[in-house]
Fold:
Amino acid sequence: MTINFKEQLVQDDDAQKLLLVDPSETPGIQQGIGIIAATTKDKGLQVETVDLREFIPGVTRSAEEGTRLVTDVPSFLAELDRYPIAPELSTLWGDETKGRIEAIYNDHNADGAGLRDNRLRLELRADDDWVAWHRLSGKYFPQIEFGDAVEELLHTVVDPDQADLVEVINSIRATSKGVFESAVDRSNGSQALEYRTETTATAGAAGRASRLEIPQTVTLAIRPWEGLDTYKVEGWFRFNTDHGRLLLTIKLKPTRNVLRAAWADVVEQIETHLGGKPVLATRFDR
Structure:
């Protein structure tokens, strides 16, 4: 390898010499790296390296340095249309666990290392209904609190019919004073609540017994992130009648596959828009 140095003698006398060396034309050494060599009567030869690269645009950072943030897929695609990426210089990276995709405009390429500092980030926001259902899932509530919680999310229920579910909720609320027992029909698996209303009658008098049919499952239409289509998610309708006290919950069936399907749809939409350019899987916390 040929090493080319540009030298500039700053001072020269019998006692000391000060020499500035510019190695910028040497392969592998970036512009902005300099060497100062000095000899003095007391300390002899001393050599120091000076790094001024951060003050030279385009050496350690690009003129377009920065990360632009959007929070839904249409905005991400619109920005890629407004400021297109160069296929040979750019990459796309996605992290399913964070709902995040980044387009790096100046990544490493066949001609050498890129600065990787010009980025567009898609950071999907968790959907409120998805978060609320996962917060409620499997948590047992007393009757009135359960009815209130489900009623707030009633718009996400697709089966049973919302009107039918409201009727069940109202019936549950109306039976808040009673002793409960569970009943399961072995022939079809249906479940029901049997409850006996409390009464202040004299000894020997029994309260009135009633039966309340409860749906086995509930089907929801929810989405992991805002701005996406909804996906079907099923949940088990469960109750506990321990010691006559009624507690209820809706336990969601595992939603991991739903999350993966939603992420695959996001990635496919972006890759299709960009003519097949892949979104590479990564973990941004590493």
Summary: The mean pLDDT is 80.
